[in-house]
Amino acid sequence: MMKPCRMHNGRVLKPKHTISDKKSFPFKSISHTNMKKIILLLVVFSSALLHSQEKNFIDKPYLEVQGKADTLVTPNRIYIDVLISEKDTKGKKSVEELESEMLSKLKSLGIDTEKNVTMQDMMSNYKKFFLKQTDIQKAKSYSILVYDAKSTAKVFIGLEEVGISNVRIDKLEHSEESKLQLLMNTKAMENAKANAVSFTKPLGQNIGKALFVSQNKNVAYRGNANQIRIRGQAPQELAFKTKAIEYNENIEFEKITISSEVITRFSLE
């Protein structure tokens, strides 16, 4: 509550500020200012600490080496995209008829149509087959999963026999890819350590703990998904007319390369 004004020699004297007068005691502004100072001090301190740690790291003798590891695996999950469209038969067969013939042919080839054949969303897949949106209503898209190159060739040839020509390989995978990648990471680190020892042993020195580790590359290279290889021959495009390879036991896909590359710094002792 404000104190009343007093008169002194004809002048009005204003009362002294009280604790309740917010203008006289700017607690909020002082708190905000202090907070800015605290934040600034923390930033400066953190920068100094990081610089000190970096300097300490640089001051330590260390050896930087590279480690690599890779392996080759044969794809055992092959995804085949199939488009059935009335355009394939120039309107002589409906999509439903083509679908029925496709499923019958796949069953005759030993494909589990309940488990390994799934319908795809045409709205998201029509561009892959260079279709116009106006043709979507007269077409269906499927994904077929097979497990080797021989089965893949049989699917391509079998679908051609029932008049389905829009067939392509979508992707190649290996069922143990994740585990193999972790194994390659381990082997790459082991390779880095072996490289470090090969440098330090002639000098009569030993390596200590790893001070720094960086993964430079982590790659699964799949090659050309639409090529098969007959052992001893050049790779060839997987096409319907390659019926000569239908029952060839030696056909295979180009292997998937799974690799890892690391950069490591070991302290010197």
Give the termini distance in whole angstroms: 75 Å
CATH overall fold name of the largest domain: Translation Initiation Factor IF3
CATH class of the largest domain: Alpha Beta
Q: What is the CATH superfamily of the largest domain?
A: Protein of unknown function (DUF541), domain 1
Question: Structural class per helix/strand content?
Answer: alpha+beta
SSE run? EEHEEHHEHEHEHEEEEE
Averaged pLDDT, please?
76
Primary descriptors:
about 270 residues, alpha+beta, Translation Initiation Factor IF3, Alpha-Beta Plaits, four-stranded antiparallel sheet, three-stranded antiparallel sheet, 6 helices, about 30% strand, elongated
Question: What's the quick description here?
Answer:
This protein is an alpha+beta fold and 269 residues long. The protein is built from six helices and twelve strands.
Question: Can you give a write-up of this model?
Answer:
The chain is an alpha+beta fold and 269 residues long. It folds into three domains: 59 residues; 106 residues, Translation Initiation Factor IF3 (2-Layer Sandwich); 97 residues, Alpha-Beta Plaits. The strands form four sheets. It has a four-stranded antiparallel beta sheet with strand order 5-6-4-7. Strands 3-12-8 form a three-stranded antiparallel beta sheet. Strand 1 and strand 2 form a beta hairpin. The chain is elongated and about 80 Å long. 18% of the residues are buried.
Task: Give me the secondary-structure topology.
Elements: E1 6-8, E2 11-13, H1 27-59, E3 62-73, E4 77-85, H2 95-108, H3 113-116, E5 117-119, H4 122-125, E6 139-146, H5 149-161, E7 166-173, H6 177-200, E8 207-221, E9 227-230, E10 236-237, E11 251-253, E12 256-268
